[in-house]
Amino acid sequence: MALALHLPSRYEDETELLSIEEAIHQGRFSSAQTQGVVIRNQVLFRPRRQMVVTIEDETETLNLRFLNFYPSQQKQMAVGSHIRVRGEVREGFQGSEMVHPTVKAVSSDTPLPASLTPVYPATAGVSQAAIRKAVNLALRDPSLQESLAEFFPHQLMSELLPSYDWPNLMEAITYLHQPPADANTQALLERTHPAWRRVQFEELLAQQISLKRAHAIRRGRQAPTFSKEIKKGLGIEAGLLAVLPFKLTAAQARVWLEIGHDLAQAFPMNRLLQGDVGSGKTVVAALAAAHVMDQGYQAAVMAPTEILAEQHYLKMKEWFEPLGVKIAWLTGSLKAKEKRLAQEMIESGQAQLIIGTHALIQESVRFAKLGLAVIDEQHRFGVRQRLEIQQRVGSELFYCHQLMMSATPIPRTLAMTYYADLDVSVIDELPPGRKPITTKVVKASRREEVISGLHSWLAKGLQAYWVCPLIEESEVLQLQTAVESFEQLTQALPGFKVGLVHGRLKSDEKAAVMAAFKANEIQLLVATTVIEVGVDVPNAALMVIEHAERFGYAQIHQLRGRVGRGSADSVCILMYAEPLSMAAKERLQTLRETSDGFVIAERDLSLRGPGELLGAKQSGDAMLRFVDLQRDAWLIELAQKAADRLLADHRELVERHLERWLGSRAEFLKA
């Protein structure tokens, strides 16, 4: 089954054979196939070691050039051999040539294949020939015919699909592996051919059924119910609302009502709270935590990085400690004694609010009475980790409620496919006083000009960020870049205090730098992407992002959200080095033109695919293999309707379909 579903990424047409003369003419525009007898085989050493083979037929001669070759290839193309070659023809120093063509040893009358030749996604050390042989054997295996047999009645399929002219699954898969010579190659490559449509529909149908079942299972589980009423008098929630220095926006109040409604249900909440950077998600999460604590339960807040968890800790401490709430802080970097003390507070129930990183889902952590888990930047956690907090914190009888938060909006197609079991709340307005951010795109050659502008900015009493990139995924190189920029800017800006923060600093050192920046003791903060989330300094209204072409959509959008938090007009400068790739040019242009998180999320989806946005890649399991969420969006609604129909009327077919497509992977869709 696995081999049968290892479908080709493209095809080569080896069904047509041209004379060498025809191939020289046609092969300048696209790949051509020809054959001939080897009349010369030379190993040359100018300018580097290479093998040049010359073949001829009755019409012309053609050179084949190999810059990398093995002794077995020299033997295969010995003088007098008859070979068939395929590749693009170009004009070389010694006449027409193919560089590294595909070569097959044949006789002059070896028949041509009847179908297009599939080219498969391959791993190192496994040849295309080996994959083709294994796939062809698999297609002839009777057990495969049985596992791919059509079990949906013809009448049902014609009702589920508006124009039912797709092949059955076995026919579709066989066709994709062995398309005939006259197949519509364009439709095959674009994955819009009816054979592809059948495979895509089946895969989407399995996913939608699995999500809908997960939704039903969740509603069958027991969770603690929390009254919608705010505790009068000295309750934590009432106290929090009283000490907040601002009123909730209409959007915050609306989503808080939606969350309160979920917490009152007897089954676990599974809600995603999304809102742009700075829209006030943390306040809503704090209200939900207060609501749960008021009724005798614990609340936990989990963030993917220590600096973000720390920001939550400091903010919640400021709000909750005056109200007498006991808070536990738990991260991997704590000393053994501190960790043990935090775990004891959590297990005894003394800690009402628990804040930390992945450390919260370790085996050694046992909650006394957890009612709510808040997971911030949920896409940064792997699928397994999100499942872990659901499964570990629930007792045999009760599961805790889950609130996930994300500043990266979820594109509609992603919500329909991967978040079908999630209720989504959107904070779609910024707090009053938040000003739009002007984004400028500047060449790195204008760096001195940028530094001069930065001097004028700081002279007005305002603060700024200077962000350095991650280079080749290396923390060491990233650190060097930040240190170099820090030293250069310290020299260029005498009279202003420049600070440096990066991932290698200890927690207390990081906290000290951030506190000094917040207090305006540091005017310019040079940082790596550790400040991507959770930093709130209203007086910092300028951000310079160095080598912006190396950052993704979501990262720049997150970083840009660190400014625009005060009353001053805010600016974000994206400084880039040339040459720019087309993708980087488009990305910077989009970010300059819009600050709409949903537009940016759609572009991000088309660039990176769903795996990275969901955190699914961290789990090591691909989610949808054959469906492109943007190209095939119309299929999603079709699969949703079909899933509803099958779950209502054909339960026996549902089990067979899930087993065929997902097996144990269905568990991941519950996260």
Automatic annotation (TrEMBL):
* E.C. code: 5.6.2.4
> GO:BP terms for this protein?
DNA recombination; DNA repair
CDD domains, from UniProt? DEXHc_RecG, RecG_wedge_OBF
The record's InterPro entries line, in alphabetical order, gives:
ATP-dep_DNA_helicase_RecG, DEAD/DEAH_box_helicase_dom, Helicase_ATP-bd, Helicase_C-like, NA-bd_OB-fold, P-loop_NTPase, RecG/Mfd, RecG_dom3_C
- Family that this chain belongs to: Belongs to the helicase family. RecG subfamily.
Function (record text): Plays a critical role in recombination and DNA repair. Helps process Holliday junction intermediates to mature products by catalyzing branch migration. Has replication fork regression activity, unwinds stalled or blocked replication forks to make a HJ that can be resolved. Has a DNA unwinding activity characteristic of a DNA helicase with 3'-5' polarity.
Q: What is this protein called?
A: ATP-dependent DNA helicase RecG
